Amino acid sequence: MALLSFLFPPKAKSATAAKERLQIIIARERGGRQGQGYDFLPALHKELIEVISKYTKVNADDIKISLDRQGNLEVLDVNVVLPDADAP
Amino acid sequence: MALLSFLFPPKAKSATAAKERLQIIIARERGGRQGQGYDFLPALHKELIEVISKYTKVNADDIKISLDRQGNLEVLDVNVVLPDADAP
């Protein structure tokens, strides 16, 4: 589980330290033919947020998204700070 | 992007080497109160596969899933080998 050390950027020492956090990483490695195939990551991430909102409250401004491309690899990284269970 | 070295297990030297691959990692770090909150990762992953199938063909037997728990961290790791674009 060395991957764990890469998950969740180091916590801010502020009130968010004890908050529940969710991170979703979607990595797509394209096969041999460069640039082939429809680029669905941006559309995919929008639907993922909708699916997650069914299970837990998510505030749009608590979501940080980054999309990186390197060679034939694309990585979508979504970080969500979840509101406290008893928050209004 | 050191995270990249953790994505995608090393490729088998077989025909799947040039295949398109998708990896989804969902990590949930629970807040201070241990064991609080509904455990939605298993249900979430099922819906994620449905969302992904809207964008690209996915064969159920090409999906490898692992769910690890360590302290207040849960990591769902979904690896999908996508069929060739021109596969029947």
UniProtKB/TrEMBL annotation, chains A, B:
InterPro entries: MinE, MinE_sf
HAMAP family given in the database record: MinE
Keywords recorded for this protein, A-Z: Cell cycle, Cell division
Organism: Herbaspirillum rhizosphaerae
Protein name: Cell division topological specificity factor
Family according to the record: Belongs to the MinE family.
Any one biological process term the GO annotation gives: cell division
Function: Prevents the cell division inhibition by proteins MinC and MinD at internal division sites while permitting inhibition at polar sites. This ensures cell division at the proper site by restricting the formation of a division septum at the midpoint of the long axis of the cell.
A matching Pfam family: MinE
